[in-house]
Prior knowledge:
alpha/beta, Rossmann fold, 17 strands, eight-stranded mixed sheet, single chain, about 35% helix, disordered N terminus, 2 domains, 8 helices
Amino acid sequence: MLDFYPIKIVSARFVFLNLIFFILVIITSCSSNNKNGPSNIGLSKSETNIQIKNSYDEFEAEIITDRKKEMDSRVIMVNGVKMKFELKFYGKKPKEGWSLYFSLHGGGQTEPAVNEKQWVRHQTLYEVNEGIVFIPRSPTNTWNMWHQDHIDPLLNRAIQNMIMLYEVNPNKVYLMGYSAGGDGVYQLAPRMADRFAAAAMMAGHPNETSPLGLRNLPFTIHMGENDAPYNRNKVATEWKGKLKNLRNNDPNGYPHLVTIHQDKGHWMELLDTVAITWMSRYRRNPFPKKVVWKQDDVTHNRFYWLRDENPAERSLLVASIEGQTIEIDNASVSDFTIMLNDSLIDMDKSVIVKYDGKEIFNATVPRTSSTILKSIREYGDPKSVYYGEIPVSLKNITK
């Protein structure tokens, strides 16, 4: 018996040491296998900057390789829908990159040849002191040609391409449109406000859309006093009142200018071109401290630093940041995500989220390579990158 015990003890040690070795091998192997993939381990500020540069450079290289041909051919396609376009260059490229102006033509429910003529005419309608004017041809010949659900992803792709292939400044992208193009601006500007620096609506009609989403987007309206069809002139005056009320109730939001041109009809004889000078004064703030997200009939998954994977038409989400505290001011949705970076809060400190005065989150939010990568690949925008996320559920929280 005495001779047996030492052998038994040695065997137990041997098994234990082999087990430790086996665990270390597995950990090392997993770490090696995931070395090039996105990680959810918290990054430091310096590691975050490196991750952003590497992720963006990789995506940019893909875009340049995969999309140069479509830009050369002047035709973009997303989900089977094609949009041709023309580009006009003005002035000299600034050090920080070109300004970009999307200019949407008029026309509508008519023969393709008529809309084609409108598009060709529109290519010479506006000039800018500095920048690239992007004049797309509507993919359809319908009354709602510029606010159908295929337009948003087409413009998103165009913005990505122009940033990466033409050195456009992401914070100097503008939207304008005339007549049916103005209809599009009324609707696209609120639902894509986080992509633009300012927007100008000329001689259009908003239909059912709401101005709530314009909280952080300078918006100007130009309308002929006698532009009576579809009550365009009356509706423009109504929007002037709506924007004024929104501004009065939220003095840091809703910058706007509404001009009704006296004695002019649907054609304003180029008096509306002053909108370009007005827009060019503005630069996009990609990280505003307050966001008002009003979904349209065409919904989006991301708007500034908010995300909703299951968006509902006409839903509303309002949130604001002060210091390290995020307040959910209004929510008609129960599940969403808050995206953060060091421009919005100090990510090395705890973040508090409140809803209806109740604290629903209090912790640090790690910077992760997976969030950075997803953020970059969604927008292709080096000036609108997020580092960490807070999933929020209001289902079990009673007001």
